[in-house]
Amino acid sequence: MSGCKNYSVSVNDNMVYVPPSIFKDFKIADQQLFDCVQQTIYDAHITRAEDLSTLNCSNAGIKSLQGLEKFFALKELNLADNQLTDITTLGSLGRLEIVKLSGNNIKNTAPLLHLLHLKTLDIRNNSALDCKDLPQLIANYNKTTTEFLLPTQCIK
């Protein structure tokens, strides 16, 4: 039966199995982010927000993360090479372990202070980034288990 998980099954005209419907109950303002999330949900047959644990939306022209907080169970998030400046929404995604934000226009990393499970953070190539929050961010994590990939202007 596991091979048929995406198909309805009937026996003697009686429906014995109906696959759960694809998750559609979300609103994301940025069309590029919406399209990426929607495609990921479809490809992975996601039926609940909490089932989405990995999202790769690199190089998609994304400008806003508003609405992404619905997917609170995300553990891996790749938003490299977009047009992001504000990452406040990421502060509400407390299960994130891997965050790739290289090649954006991020100015402030303070929202990342709330990510207690962070193992990898890539914020390279964010030339507008104010490095003043980075010492606090780095101090929050175990330096032997968390990898930080920093912009060149923040490396001393």
List the helices and strands and how they pair.
Elements: E1 9-11, E2 14-17, H1 31-44, E3 54-56, E4 76-78, E5 98-100, E6 120-122, H2 134-139, E7 147-149
Parallel strand pairs: 3-4, 4-5, 5-6, 6-7
Antiparallel strand pairs: 1-2
Summarize this entry quickly.
The protein is an alpha/beta fold and 156 residues long. The protein has 2 helices and 7 strands; from the N terminus they run ββαββββαβ. The protein is 13% helix and 14% strand.
Describe the fold and architecture.
This protein has 156 residues and is α/β, with parallel strands linked by helices. The chain has a single domain, classed as Alpha-Beta Horseshoe (Leucine-rich repeat, LRR (right-handed beta-alpha superhelix)), CATH 3.80.10.10. It is built from 2 helices and 7 strands, in the order E-E-H-E-E-E-E-H-E. The longest helix has 14 residues, at 31-44. The N and C termini lie far apart (57 Å).
Which terms would index this structure?
2 helices; elongated; two-stranded antiparallel sheet; five-stranded parallel β-sheet; 14% strand; 7 strands; Leucine-rich repeat, LRR (right-handed beta-alpha superhelix); alpha/beta; 13% helix; 156 residues
- Secondary structure category: alpha/beta
Quaternary structure annotation: single chain
As a percent range, the share of helical residues equals 10-25%
Q: Strand order within the widest sheet?
A: 3-4-5-6-7
State the low-pLDDT regions, or none. Answer: none
Radius of gyration: 19 Å
Number of domains: 1
Mean pLDDT across all residues, rounded? 89
Overall geometry comes to elongated
For the record, what is the CATH homologous superfamily label?
Ribonuclease Inhibitor
Please report the distance between the alpha carbons of the first and last residues.
Answer: 57 Å
Beta-strand portion reads 5-15%
Element-level helix/strand string: EEHEEEEHE
In total, the number of strands is 7
Main sheet record = 5 strands, parallel
